[in-house]
Design brief:
Length: 544
């Protein structure tokens, strides 16, 4: 009887302990979710203030639900579970350990992320079996790893930092971009080029590796765009699929917006798009590649009142594609460079054909309607401005010159056909756009970044927004010629006295900037900016 009572008491205690543990875990999950939503909403508000599209908060903040993938992708993605034999036993063991890490609450979140990041820095993540992979830059240096996975083509998303390691060996075909992992970077303008490149590789039986620095944001975004296009996946389902294969996947908020818009453009009614008409600016893509001409979708309102500066308008130095619900116009500026004009027109016409085929653009049988600066028809003005108020206000001034767009309209000089991308067997162009796949590390205006989380004295070159939590003390060092800065960010639960903060800041400043051989005057001019959580400056957010 006594024994029975003891058993009953023990069961009650165990039940009570399990209940307490369950409540603690639930409270922890709620706290983490609340913090993430708060931080996400703050960044979203910042982006909306800059005129960028609203984002589906639930799609970005929820944890991946991998069960939703099975009925929405093609067979070769569904069959990924049958390819486990291609993975070594050691790799399987490491993956099991990573899953265990996520359930170990004794580890700090920063420590867990560091371990996981180190694992993924050494491995390729197979997104589509035997075909499409994501990795860090570090993994692309491992020739044995590339050969083991039979990689034939490599897309380098961060060529200003990442070298095409084996390009001189003519073993791999490289496609290089100088993308910045920045919320305002336009990445959608190269979606179709990358999709075509990947599809061409598939037709030839090759395998594609897409990488950036860590394989977290830029490379993940391009792979998600491919999945959205090929498999008609929504943003959430494409994200869930990629993150199930590569846990650290996390496109920045600007890229996430562009991916959501890409799905809308492909598969929803044009009337559901936020900005109508759609306006695409034709011009150079990056400072490092002025010869690469792209069509940027302008994710900001045109002809809207602005407190500071003039409203956004068409730029007289460029060509713009304007897609209304009923017409497609090709607007040609009066100040366009003679050298650039033909190249801009060819790029624009190629892109209009893509818009017609894939995005329901209402192009007539005779092609787009040509419109010339200061000779606009009333029909064009009505489609562009839409409301009576705007028509009355802007009908006599539809264009201007915007200095912040100067880099788009550089004089382009292309000698012969040397910038066309060729495959390693000279089998012809893999894309229709002029492209130089060589890296260029000589940009004198290059920005270098180092992020130090107390008490570490070794920097990370990339910072995840999730790392900015209530227990983080961050020193962010930004090097740029004559514009270097230090940003201090301290979470509300950081308990460090001011003397320690000052000592750590000075230590990090010395460690980081001594590599640039600054003069004493330059060193003393480095500005220090204190950031307030949830009230961060746009400049600080642009660097992370």
């Amino acid at each position: 009887m006594v024994s029975l009572q003891k058993n009953v008491l023990n069961e009650e205690k165990l039940t009570e302990r399990a209940k307490i543990k369950s409540e603690e875990e639930e409270n922890l999950n709620l706290l983490q979710e609340s913090t993430l939503i708060s931080n996400s909403q703050h960044i979203i508000n910042k982006m909306n203030s800059l005129g960028m599209n609203k984002i589906n908060l639930s799609g970005l903040n929820q944890q991946p639900n991998n069960n939703n993938n099975s009925n929405n992708t093609n067979n070769n993605i569904n069959n990924s579970n049958n390819n486990k034999n291609n993975i070594s036993e050691n790799q399987n063991q490491e993956e099991i350990n990573i899953k265990a890490l996520n359930e170990d609450y004794s580890l700090k979140d920063s420590e867990r992320k560091k371990i996981i990041s180190e694992y993924y820095s050494k491995h390729l993540s197979e997104i589509i079996p035997n075909f499409l992979y994501i990795s860090s830059y570090n993994a692309t240096k491992n020739k044995t790893l590339l050969e083991k996975n039979k990689i034939t083509h490599i897309i380098n998303c961060a060529a200003d930092f990442c070298e095409n390691v084996f390009e001189s060996e003519n073993k791999y075909t490289y496609l290089s971009f100088y993308l910045k992992d920045h919320v305002l970077e336009n990445i959608e303008c190269i979606f179709y080029e990358c999709i075509k490149f990947i599809d061409n590789v598939k037709e030839k039986g090759g395998r594609v590796l897409v990488h950036c620095i860590q394989g977290i944001s830029r490379s993940v975004t391009l792979v998600m765009a491919y999945l959205i296009y090929k498999n008609k996946l929504t943003y959430d389902k494409a994200f869930n699929l990629v993150q199930s294969k590569r846990e650290i996947s996390s496109p920045n908020f600007g890229f996430s917006i562009q991916l959501q818009n890409f799905y809308l453009r492909l598969y929803e009614s044009p009337s559901k798009y936020r900005y109508i008409p759609k306006i695409f600016a034709v011009g150079s893509f990056q400072n490092e590649q002025p010869e690469k001409i792209v069509c940027r979708l302008m994710n900001e309102p045109f002809y809207e009142h602005k407190e500071n500066g003039i409203p956004r308008m068409l730029d007289k130095r460029g060509i713009f594609i304007i897609v209304s619900l009923n017409n497609v116009y090709l607007w040609i500026g009066s100040k366009i460079s003679v050298t650039n004009k033909d190249l801009y027109l060819k790029t624009a016409m190629d892109y209009i054909n893509i818009l017609k085929e894939y995005e329901h653009a209402p192009v007539g049988e005779s092609g787009p309607i040509y419109i010339y600066d200061e000779k606009e028809s009333q029909e064009f003005i009505n489609d562009l401005l839409k409301t009576k108020e705007k028509i009355e206000r802007f009908k006599n001034k539809l264009s201007d010159i915007f200095p912040e767009w100067n880099s788009w309209y550089k004089e382009v000089k292309i000698e012969g056909n040397k910038n066309n991308l060729k495959d390693k067997n000279n089998e012809g162009n893999l894309n229709d756009n002029n492209y130089d796949s060589k890296s260029n590390n000589g940009n004198t205006n290059e920005i270098k970044k180092g992020f130090f989380v107390y008490p570490n004295d070794k920097p990370d070159t990339v910072l995840d927004l999730d790392d900015l939590n209530d227990e983080t003390f961050l020193v962010a060092c930004i090097y740029q010629a004559n514009k270097s800065k230090i940003f201090i960010w301290k979470g509300k639960f950081v308990d460090i006295n001011e003397n320690v903060i000052e000592e750590y800041k000075n230590k990090i400043k010395k460690i980081y900037f001594e590599q640039y051989n600054l003069s004493e005057e330059e060193y003393n001019k480095i500005e220090c900016v204190n950031e307030i959580p949830l009230e961060e400056s746009d400049e600080f957010l642009s660097f992370i």
